[in-house]
Fold:
Amino acid sequence: MSDFVHPIERRITITLADEERLRRQLAETWYVPRGILGWFSVTDHKTIGKRYITTAFGFFIFAGILAALMRIQLAVPNNHFVGPDLYNQIFTVHGTMMMFLFAVPVMEALGVYLVPLMIGTRSIAFPRLNAFSYYVYLFGGVMLVVTMLLNTAPDVGWFSYVPLAGPDYAPGKRADFWAQLITFTEVAALAVSVELVATIFKARAPGMSLNRMPLFVWSMLVTAFMVIFAMPSIVTSSSFLLLDRLVGTHFYNPAEGGDALLWQHLFWFFGHPEVYIIFVPALGIVSSIISAFTWRPIFGYPAMVMSLVATGFIGFGLWVHHMFATGLPALGLEYFTAASIVIAIPTGVQIFCWIASLWRGRPRFHTPMLFVAGFFGIFVLGGLSGVTLASVPFDLQVHDSYYVVAHFHYVLLGGAVFPLIGGIYFWFPKMTGRMMDDSLGKINFWLLFIGFNVTFFPMHILGFEGMPRRVYTYPDNMGWATLNLISSLGALLLVLGGALFVYNVVRSYVWGLAAGDNPWGAETLEWSTSSPPPVYNFLHQPVVEGRCALWDRSADAPVVTGIRSDIREVLITDVMDAEPVTVAEYPEPSIWPFLCAVVTSGFFIGSIFTPWAVPVFVAPISITLIGWFWPKQRDRERAMEEQAEEGQTPPARPLKEMREVRA
Amino acid sequence: MNAQPQDTRRVLDVAALPRHAFGHQGLIWWGTTGFMVIEGSMFVIVLIVYFYLRLQVRDWPPSLPDPGLFYGTANLVTVLVSVLPAYIAKQKAEAFDLAGVRLWLGVLVLFGLVAVGLRFFEYFTLNCRWDDNAYGSIVWTLLSLHTLHVATDVGDSIVLLTLAFVGPNSKKRFVDYSENSLYWYFIVAWWIPIYLTIYFMPRWL
Structure:
């Protein structure tokens, strides 16, 4: 570190004219390209983030419609609204889409949009990879929608157990579409996670040491790490499934030394952390909203951070509790029972910290805060039914029944969707510059809250009464009719609530009140820039002076200068203390990530039909990757600038090592 | 503080900071490391599956001959020796020595091509097919997963070598040359446990 250069702190005069010039130049440098070609070349994290969020909600609506179809089918006994085959496709696509195309991507998308703003930087690290990730995700999702519309969608459940999903029992291509969809979404999610880790660790505003990082950013960091360690498992297992189905390997074939339970281990080693991958960002949303609507920092910041990290670790030790009914050795099961109960501790710690924050905070109950209150009610109930499921004898009784369906909808909708919708109400003003209508928001909340409970609470009882999940209909004499009808009526309320939400978004986008920079008086950096933020995020990169970046900011807070505004320069800081260490240059917009995503998608889909897709697509993928990395005009300029610079200043390195550098 | 005149502003001037960074101070290192962790997790999981499948049957390999040792071992020797050019190329990159990078990256590419060539023959000495049984499936998968990494990085190195000759070679590019070696180390390091598993577990277990 001998050549370590420290930034210089000083006072300068910045006139309004200087600022205006800077504003114009930054807008030019960080331009978002226009036109059709430009649309596909965008790498701005806010544009990609908004597309990601919108697309995810598009899939949410599609999967929600499928759910409504299921509730229509189940409203009365012996119904023939949809047949068993279509019903199988519907519940499989509903679950798959909600988990892989809505819940995980929408949380990561929020991170893509918000993290760079919250940590005070100009963009996300590896912006082109970010664009690539979005298109791969989009194409994968479109593939699943198309299979559903063509009546050839996966029909083996969202966890696609073998042997049912194996070559013997699932002929045709349906299960292959499922397995390949996983590949699409995993590639996208892993890419975003690497970007988020790099951005959070290396691009925080000076002064934002780890112990001053907003809790939302902590939650995205933990999530990104969980994705990085969990998703390789599902990549492996779904690839094995494809290989078994397409080229005759025997991973899951007990007759040839394979094992069907191997699938469940690999799937749930990913699948359980997946629940926390969805839930942990929601915790960050809740913390952001509570602190903004109580105007107080969250109580017990260190405990909150430790709980998030602990959740990230313990989340990996629970997977076998999805397999209690598979006849594994009892001693092993006891460990997983214990671990399943232990994970309630960090969650409990957080809930108590939030209660402490609310206690004296005089919360203002605007719509986002209402959704947080709804989260408390629903999630605690879902958490409690989760603790009951951790008990093996109980689990065996209700396994694969509607009790489980009730439990995970309480956890996922309560734990993730309610905070998420609250988060949309909360950040919509930042993203669009307009407020969402609060009165409609409150109606929206009550419709969803009541609708949710009416839909899903009866399912607990249906489970006790023995109704198995995934049946397309049931006979009259089972005594399940009334509760199912109530549940379906609740679903109607949910549909109304969802429609009202969409209406409110559209209406507010066009006619909403102007939001201003910080309509809620919140603490984090995204609220210090305009709404919507300029393409370059901040005119001057900020310097952070305390844990609540805006509330702790002194009147004379410094800003960063010395970053070039004629090229896409971004300050890079060190991991722990966010001391400035170097300046990176982010790439220009490019069409190549899109092209690469197109051929990669072609490869993924092609390989469902023939192994020859592998050799056929090697060349196009390589070409697009090389195009992506091939030097552009700016690279030549940089080399020339460096040469010119070196002509004037002595080289930083000893001369003997310089002998061959440049003619 | 408050006594400062209104028209001046406190700033943190970072103009003097370097515009490129080797190692963990730079973003490229974090990107590379992120993907190494992901792919490393994948290797770990596939290795675990190998041993899990071992537990499902009595004999290992189940009614098949052991894999032949020659090509796998030759490959091990090749990639272990290739660490040397990779190391020198990294040193040269960090000294901005373009001629050195061209030379040693070129040598590394040669080693990589030899490794890919040997890998081709390795498949014939596995003495099983992927569709014989689960053993064959996992052995082919392990080898292919590693081959994919070797081939990708050789391709990557060839592109970088081309860039080293056609330029432009800004300092940022030297960071790429340097991190390329880091990724190669990763691939070589993983060959050791994978080699031991593929070739010796059938003999030892």
